[in-house]
Here is the input.
Amino acid sequence: MQGGAPETRDTDLMEQIMTAADTITSLTIRRPDDLHLHLRDGAMLAAVVADTARHFGRAIVMPNLVPPVVTAADACAYRDRILDHLSDHKHFQPLMTLYLTETTDASDVVAAAEAGIIHAVKLYPAGATTNSASGVRDFDKVRSVLEAMAAIGLPLCVHGEVTDPSVDIFDREAVFIDRVLTPLRAAVPGLKVILEHVTTADGVDFVRDAGGNMAATITTHHLFINRNHILAGGIRPHYYCLPVAKRERHRLALVAAATSGAPQFFLGTDSAPHLDTDKQSACGCAGIYTAPNTLSCLAHVFEAESALHLLEGFTSVHGAAFYGLPPAQDRITLVKRDAPVTFPASRTTAHGEVTIFDCGEELYWEVEASL
Ligand code: DOR
Ligand code: ZN
Here is the structure.
């Protein structure tokens, strides 16, 4: 930059942009998709599904029920049970997944995908998280299924943590990348893979450098919490999830990735309701329930990063594109209120309360005119 005049013009422009950003109070975006969601079943499903359907158009529904969703027939039946609760939200499409086991039948997977019944297969290393006992121990046993998926472009959603008890829980994602994900990508290079709920800078770097058929979902809660939120000054079970939140530098890497506009990164809330009695226990369940306030939280993060213009890509465009889904045609509007918006502390189910995520900050954005 030479001379005084151009610098003055740049300064003026920057002031205008900052003024505009300060005064944005309404944002209309394509209706978001949640590319990683736990809806459960029975009374819990009945209590929680509207919290997602109210704001979102589609969701990739996780298959870790008890027993898990392992066949096309299971997925059809589960989809019907979800749809039974959606008479007030007919726009919402649950996109079903199968739980990969060592006995999964490749032809059943291909037939389910070609019939539009399923949109992904989920890989849980055995024992990695809630209801993952039927997961994979020997990756050679699922190789033919992965090759069949690659041939038809069906994505593999990966819970990216090793379960080796000798590996520290805070290192399990990084070790998974070295021990499992890198060899898996080399073994089946054509497979679309999503590193679900990425929690580390290592994961972000891996995905960013991996090339076209690799992506990652980022949750809402991992943009807010680090491991101190769980453990410092008392143990806080409602911030406990898997993969567990890591150090602050990892949270910052996730915020940078989510707000970067890079198409490999998109929203998968991993909203995972558990009864408070199951979380507030000597051996509490992993999972954070974020569905009711996720979009308010995300608008808050993107605004703080001066990236509100990139929110739509993260919530509504990148994920659909990776899954080969058409972009949503309808839209929602987020409005910024003058006073903080409040959310209930919990959702009531037939069996008890489910605490809603408290992001620890005052939220001003909310979805307007939701269905
Ligand atoms: O925190 C989590 N909860 N992580 C998972 O991977 C599973 C989920 C659940 O199903 O509760
Ligand atoms: Zn999950």
